[in-house]
Each structure stands twice: as C-alpha cells, then as structure tokens.
Amino acid sequence: MLATVTSKGQVTVPKDIRERFNIAPGTKLDFKPNDDGTFSVRPLTRSALSIAGVLKRTKQPAVSVEQMNKAVADMVADRFRRSGKK
Q1: Which of 31, 43, 53, 58 has the greatest CB tally within 10 Å of its CB?
Q2: Distance of alpha carbon 50 from the chain centroid
Q3: Buried residues in 55-82 as b, exposed as e (16+ CB within 10 A)
Q4: Could you tell me the pTM of the whole model?
C-alpha cells in the first residue's frame, strides 16, 4: 500500500492497516531503521491489562473496584457541589 509524506512529514496510515493492527488516534508508532536501508514500523498498542501491577503500592491496603468507583463518584459530587452549579 502506498502513502504520501506531507510537507510536514506526516503520513496517513491506510484504513486497512489501521483496522488490522488496531491503530487508533493517539497510537504511538515505533520506526526502526534496518541495516539494508529499509525500516520497520510497529504500533505500540497495549491493553490496560498489560501494565497491571507496574506501580507498586507499598504499605497500603488493596482497594476493590467498588471502593474505587465510590471514591470517584464522591469526588465528582464534591466538585459539583463546590462549583455551585445546579
């Protein structure tokens, strides 16, 4: 498939390729130069599950999804109250 580089160095990734490799707006593309003068491109797509456990929470108890949802809802409600909106 062909794509054209714009004067700003931008390239539109063909729709078939975006769909096949789940390339969505904001997806980072990794360009790797090869010794033979060509290059490879790969999308750096990750699911949230692929980074689970990366951040360590030392000396803090585990929190359930329900507790997280309640904390977020409470925070949003508090901000809404403080904004004076009705």
Answers
A1: 43
A2: 12
A3: eeeeeeeeeeeeeeeeeeeeeeeeeeee
A4: 0.48
Q: pLDDT at position 50, please?
A: 64
pLDDT digits (tens, 9 = 90+) for 65-81: 999 999 999 999 999 88
The rounded distance, in Å, linking the Cα atoms of 50 and 1 is 31
- Residue at 44: amino acid letter: L
Count of beta carbons in the 10 Å neighbourhood of residue 31: 8
In single-letter form, the type of residue at position 56 comes to K
For 43, counting Cβ atoms within 10 Å of its Cβ (0-12 exposed, 13-18 middle, 19+ buried), the class is middle
Q: Which two tokens stand for residue 77?
A: 């409600």
Segment 26-48 shows an average pLDDT of 88
